[in-house]
Design goal:
alpha/beta, 5 strands, five-stranded parallel sheet, 54% helix, 168 residues, binds 5-O-phosphono-beta-D-ribofuranose
């Protein structure tokens, strides 16, 4: 049974949403991924949001661009956490998506990550699930350690080569 719902407003959002899915794949978290437009097919959207709890989702990751109502409307219906990913847009640089997703009215929160923040959405979903999953929590701690190791390896290389050698 999928623990996370990943939903995007259009297939043009896929490169960003794939980063969230990749994180869940790496952490062994089951998910269902869908393309559903709240604007272009509201009936399909309402069916999806209404069934999400019954399907077993504990978190929904919803990404959308422009007048990005998909995450907020998921949060209006789904009773568990919703993580919103604002898509970069050519006209307004993603500020349109960001403001549409982050500026939710009191009572209906959406945990909004950065513009195009697909990977962080996946990590945040994992952290939410890890509250009641010791094995997953251990994987997330290992992931944090790997981030530290990677920065330290870069600094060691810098100390060894100097900045000119580092940039070659
Ligand atoms: C939103 O409109 C989608 O989430 C997408 O980011 C944006 C543009 O959609 P397309 O015109 O590329 O299908 O609903």
């Amino acid at each position: 049974m999928a623990r996370v719902g990943i939903v995007m407003g259009s297939d043009s959002d896929m490169p960003v949403m794939a980063k969230a899915a990749q994180v869940l794949d790496e952490l062994g978290i089951s998910y269902e991924m869908r393309i559903i437009s709240a604007h272009r097919e509201p009936d399909v959207f309402f069916e999806y949001a209404n069934m999400a709890e019954e399907k077993g989702f504990k978190v929904i990751i919803a990404g959308a661009g422009m007048a990005a109502h998909l995450p907020g409307m998921c949060a209006a219906i789904f009773p568990m956490p919703v993580i919103g990913i604002p898509m970069h847009t050519t006209s307004l640089g993603g500020r349109d998506s960001l403001y549409s997703i982050v500026q939710m009215p009191s009572g209906i929160p959406v945990a909004t990550v950065a513009i195009n923040g697909g990977a962080n959405a996946g990590i945040l979903a994992a952290k939410i699930l890890a509250v009641s999953d010791e094995e997953l929590l251990k994987k997330l701690k290992d992931y944090s350690s790997s981030l530290k190791d990677s920065v330290q390896a870069k600094d060691e290389k810098l100390q060894e080569l100097g900045y000119k050698g580092y940039m070659k």
